[in-house]
Amino acid sequence: MTSWSRSTCCSVLALALTCGLAAASARAADAPVTQDRLLNPDKEEGNWLLHHRNYAAHRFARLDQINRENVKNLKVAWTMALGGVEGGGIWTHGGLEGTPLAEDGFLYVTDGWGSVYKIDAHGGRGKLVWKMDPKTDKDWAGAVACCGVDNRGVALWNDKVISHTLDGRLIATDKKTGDVAWQAQLADPDKGEVITGAPLVVKDMAITGVAGAEYGIRGWIAATDLKTGKEIWRTYTIPAKGEPGSETWQDEHNAAATGGGSTWVTGSYDPATNTLYWGVGNPGPDWDHEYRPGDNLFTDSTLALDADTGRIKWHFQHTPNDPFDYDSVSEKVLVDLPDGKKLAIEADRNGFAYALDRSNGQFVWGMPFVKRVSWTKGLDPKTGKPMEYDPNKPIQPYLGKPDRTNTVATICPGNMGGKNWPPTAYNPDLKLWYIPVIESCNQITVKPAVPGESFKPREFFTGGGPKQPERITGSITAVDVATGKIAGKLETPYPLLGGMLATPDLVFTGHPSGEITAHDAKTLEKLWEFNTGSGLNAPPMTFVVDGKQYVAILAGVGGAWDKWFIDSTPELKSMQPGSMLFVFAL
Amino acid sequence: MGRTNACLVLALALAGLLAGAAGCPVGAQPMAPKADEGQKVFKEACAGCHKWHGGGGGGYGGAALSLRQTQLDRAHLVEVVGCGRPGTGMPSHKRDAYADGACYGLKKADLGQDAPPEANRFLRPKEIEAVVDYVIAHVQGKGDPTLADCEAFWGAGARTCGEYRPGGAAPEAAKVGE
């Protein structure tokens, strides 16, 4: 389908009587993906060119062929079986967590081992154009991946498809042929570093985050020049000795060297100020916070970085000296309110939603989005810090925390959150923000880490471990961003492990029990459901081809849940590994 | 890397034929555990929490005990692998462990909150014995893990064993990429 002329394109569209929905017809079908196109996704509403659909991470598509009146008629249009279900290292199978990208009728999806599939979606069916298998080192990478064989998708740049592999590579693949143009080793699995997130392309750079805080890495965010494959900058999330923030590591055994702070969820970007917004994960060891007295910057923080240099412009730390494994990796959703406020909003693993002034990191509002919070009385309304936080204390006195004295503790939310990596969606018309929630508590047992003994490269360095003695459920929680209040909560029998999609009057999500559901955007009432028969662990997305709107989702449960957290959802043991793309249409 | 559709279809068809050809005789053979069966089971069922060397410690799978230091005898190890440890995160691996009182004379209802989790994949009695024999032979009572232990588990030259090589280096030949 490389030789689509503009006239052919337009006549097909005219027949479909839906020209307005399609990608801008003034552009050739094989036009390069330029920065200008990435900056203007609204000009091609039928495409989905960025991981979170736009740089502001809204995951909102202004497509309304499928709407609240007719969504009940949504049916499977086509499916495609993918690969990547094989295991490796300590993992018995891979899973699907990716967001497909769509450009002019072609889909780009990944499986858990980082194979990229280009699929022609024209004509109401899917046809594989090519598959790029990066030949990921399975035993090796699988053994040092904390939380499953995962890959959350690709980025598009120029005439290349940009992807990551679990074993730490960045790969540029020719979009037309599927041939690898070049690759670069960014992360070092020797240190327990792996890559699971999708790259973010900004101004001819690929921005990459890393995973591995459970293995004592020192986290970073890196920018690679896509024209040369060379690194432009790399910013560590744990400051080196003497750098600002290093004073928040007050131990005498160099805990910062294995301090964690991974960056494994794709961030957002504000072109007006050339600022990247990126989340930082937990400190290591996860649960023994007496090993690392001090606030442990920049773990559990929201970072604003200069996109050209990686310089940290400001930071906001959500859980200083964290004893809970409350990563703040969640995507920062950029929202402009009518009163002129420019916010970066985040749903944290610690159970609180935060709105920050994105120009300076000042706290605007915060509130719990989960039903149960045990670890703090709440946030200080001025500072946004937990009420118990005392900047003069090396060890923070959070309520009921696990530590070396209280070695077994139940915490709410549990260490998976709150909200984990599955992305939120934001409807800018309704000012409603939809959070895929894990309503949870779990039990933590602390095993004190011993300096010089406990840390071994490529082995779990967590200072204890979690257990799941009670049931975990979920909810779709809608937040009114203008007021910072919960606008609605629809409880679900299982945690939401896939993420959200918003359209003008609908919200879609996937459930680990197999159902994809559509809900009224205002009331959250369920309007449609289809059971894929396979655990959903990936976000839905929507696109247009041949003038017709489709909804797509990857099906195949993987990740940490079905290995480490399944006891809280025992019925889900019946969900078998799978690897399938589902595409729906009216 | 890049392939034409025809090539891909052919490759898939060939892969299917090969898989089928390889699959048939295996199914027809007796199910006797192979010599490395215990290590295979250990890798799939135990290493996630107890780590490859059995030393245990922390991790997302829980805070697992050290199998290198365990004092349990063979019969007790078989029992614990099969029945799990009530009140801890150690899962039961025997199918229906608490259905008929086969484990400690208890049923699931008797244990309530203390019921151990059920393993994701159940182990057949032969597999449980194989993994226990593996633990006794290669893990229990051993001191700190060595390079030989690590390579026996992960394969000769495995990069994950760099920790146990002089200087902690990975062997050059095994580096990923060019």
CATH topology of the largest domain in chain B: Cytochrome Bc1 Complex, Chain D, domain 2
The percent range for helix content of chain A is under 10%
Main β-sheet description of chain A: 4 strands, antiparallel
Give the overall form of chain B. Answer: elongated
- Estimate the mean pLDDT confidence of chain B: 77
Model regions low in confidence, pLDDT < 50 over at least 5 residues of chain A: 1-25
Q: Strands across the major sheet of chain A, in which order?
A: 1-35-34-33
Question: How many independent structural domains of chain B?
Answer: 3
Strand segment tally of chain B: 0
Please bin the fraction of helical residues of chain B: 40-55%
> What is the radius of gyration of chain B?
20 Å
Radius of gyration of chain A: 22 Å
- Greatest interface by residues involved: A-B, 60 and 39 residues
Structural class determined from secondary elements of chain B: mainly alpha
Strand content of chain B: under 5%
- The CATH architecture category of the largest domain in chain B equals Orthogonal Bundle
What's the level 1 CATH class of chain A? Mainly Beta
Which CATH architecture of chain A is right?
Answer: 8 Propeller
Q: Determine the oligomeric state from the structure.
A: heterodimer
User: Can you count the helices of chain B?
Assistant: 6
